[in-house]
Amino acid sequence: MSIKSEVVNESVFIIHVGERFDFSLVIDFRNSYEELDEGIKQIDIDLAATEYMDSSALGMLLNMQKSLADRQLTYRIINARPQIARILQISRFNKKFDIQ
Amino acid sequence: MVKILIVDDEEINRIMLREMLKEVGYNDFIEADNGLQAIEQASTHHPDIVLLDVIMPGMSGIDAAPQIKATSPDCHLPILFITSLDDEQSLVRCLESGGDDFISKPFEKIILHAKLKAHERTRNLSLEIIDKNRSLTYFQLEVERNHRIVEHIFDNAIGQNAEAAAYFDFYTQPEAQFNGDLFLCEKSPAGGVYLFIGDFTGHGLASAIGAIPVAQLFSVMSHRGLAVGEMATRLNRLLVSLLPADIFCVANIVEIYPNGKNFTLWGGGLPRVAVKTPDQQIRLLIDSQHMPLGILEDYEFENDTQNFEIESGDTVLFYTDGLMESQHAEYGMLGEEGVEKWFTQRASVNAQLLVDKAELYRAGAAAEDDITIVLFQSQPFNFNVPVHTITPVPFDLSFHLTVTHIKDSQLIEQIVSIVHSIQGLAAIRSEFFTVITELVNNSIEHGILGLSSSLKDEPDGFIKYYQLRQQKLESLEQGDIWLTLRRIMPENVLEISLEDSGPGFAPDSLTEDDNVPHGRGFVLIKELCQSLHIDDHGKCITVRMSLQPALTDASASNKVE
Fold first, then answer.
1. Based on the structure, what is the number of domains in chain A?
2. Which of B19, B80, B133, B532 shows its CA 20 to 30 Å from the CA of B29?
3. Mean pLDDT score, B212-227
4. Alpha carbons B336 and B333: distance in angstroms, whole number
5. Among partner residues A59, A83, A91, which is closest to B523 by beta-carbon distance?
6. B306 - beta bridge partners?
7. In this chain, where does the modification 4-aspartylphosphate occur (chain B) (predicted)?
8. Do A51 and B430 touch (CB under 8 A)?
């Protein structure tokens, strides 16, 4: 698994990221949210499986928010392991994402 | 086709019998004119029915009958004596020697046919039984063989980490009696312990089979230090996809922190966890909150956990249904209260004592379900080999990466996997990955390929940047990166130096604008490393990372709060 996505309760779109979240996922990650249903109100990025992350992953996350800027969406990052949470924290991602 | 052996010293009798039998549909005959020849024919041709004359020169029918019978030891072989005798004594002797019936001379076709039909039926029944016995024996051997194989796999796949298990007093049923209970115990990377106490529905091999994948996944997850809730999610997902709907697993998944006092529990359907104080008072009872593993789909599954803290000298009791379901003819089921009463009766209660008491309570009746009991008296874990000890051997690793390696999309993965193999470095693997990825990509993208990050600021530039990177990389003809990893003592740091053959570049100014999708790499490096030096116009970068895995301990104590 590198990128998998699913819709829960018709309003939450969950993107599950694999073990490595790096630039090799640029295209897959973008494709995952390209045709988002109208009813989606929230996007969850599930990093439970993610052990490695680099700055391009951060770029991808911001890029997603940018390209969906015209929609009223809330963004959450869920299940991040301590090491990954630290990287998000260093990059002050808690300003843009609800980090659980 | 029924094969008939006709034994008579008078040829005329043999002919008459044969012709008569042919008329009623038999046509497979063998013949003998004395007892000895009859035995020989029977052992070579295996007849289904024998017609045997009583009085013959040489060996008589009565003497031959037992030996003819013996040629078919596994299957009933009917022997019908041909006789004109009518004195009772002789008839009795015929039956005693192994005869099953008589046909009397002169022969009557209708009687002869009816008798043969009857004996043909018993012969067929006997043949069927042999056939079924053969299948049964085959299946029995097959089952025994499968049991042996599974037992072997169980022995190898399911086991407690001995060092961690030494901190627990537990009772599990012998593995040879496959049961649905499972107790697993592993060290956590933080220096504590993970436990899995589970009970699959049903008994025997079918319910035990789910134990193997659970044990394997649990071991991998423990090694990686996953949170208890995440373990529950993954085990549930595994079991939902693997098991038939009627098999599921009630379980407690537990993490005990290195201090031996803080617990995280995901409880799915097992009896409540009991904690007692050193003076035999119940301190805590923690009810299970969830449905068993292997039932709910991912979206309905709840992985929230309970945290609790015990005091030094307290004892925690985990057990499966088998113990509390012990039945007494008068008092009924033992129940959770009953178990807790025994547990608090005296200080020295151990797992075996509870099992013995349950056996007495059942008054000798067998337990209806498998029993697993785990007791832990609070104490800090002090493992002989701390998980994060770095190798005492100093090292200095150099990599010279040429254009082939630079083009390899697996490059970083390979470097990381080499570094992982150094004892103790796995502890900082996530941070190391991030740092090395930033450094190497910085060299490739800005040093060798000459890309500018400002590209990413244009609309859709993020994707364009990586497409351009791909194009430039494909047509790259020359480029070198020299990477050195060195352990520096006594500071105990990992120094990473990187030099590339590019013309040098001005590193991105560190951006403070959170909306710009670039420039975060150096921020990350600065935070994850103790120091960062950029020399020779960006051609040469040196960073130092601490080898003290402070993060893991800090995160462990954070989780408890």
1. 1
2. B133
3. 86
4. 9
5. A91
6. B265
7. 53
8. yes
Could you tell me the CA-to-CA distances from B333 to B197, B327, B328 in Å, in that order? 22, 4, 6
CB contact under 8 A, B434 and A27: no
State both tokens at B224. 């990686």
Q: Do A23 and B466 touch (CB under 8 A)?
A: yes
Domain with CATH 3.40.50.2300 in chain B: 3-130
**Amino acid found at B261:** K
pTM score, two decimals?
Answer: 0.51
Task: Please name the member of B429, B433, B515 whose beta carbon is closest to the beta carbon of A62.
Answer: B515
Q: Which tens digits make up the pLDDT trace of B478-527?
A: 999 999 999 888 778 899 999 998 887 665 544 445 555 567 788 888 88
Decide if B521 and A79 are in contact by the 8 Å CB cutoff: no
Contact at CB, B520 and A24, closer than 8 angstroms: no
When comparing pLDDT for B156 and B232, which is higher?
B232
ipTM: 0.76
Classify domain B159-377 by CATH architecture.
4-Layer Sandwich (3.60)
Tokens of B110: 């209708």
Name the residue with tokens 């001379």: B105
Question: In the block, which residue shows the tokens 């379980």?
Answer: B251
Interface of B with A (CB under 8 A): 224, 226-227, 230, 233, 299, 409, 412-413, 416, 429-431, 433-434, 437-438, 441, 456, 462-463, 466, 469, 514-515, 517-518, 520-521, 523-524, 527-528, 551-552, 554-555, 558
Q: Which residues contact B144 (CB under 8 A, 6 or more apart)?
A: none
- Tell me if the domain spanning B3-130 has CATH number 3.20.20.70: no
Return the CATH fold of B396-556: Heat Shock Protein 90 (3.30.565)
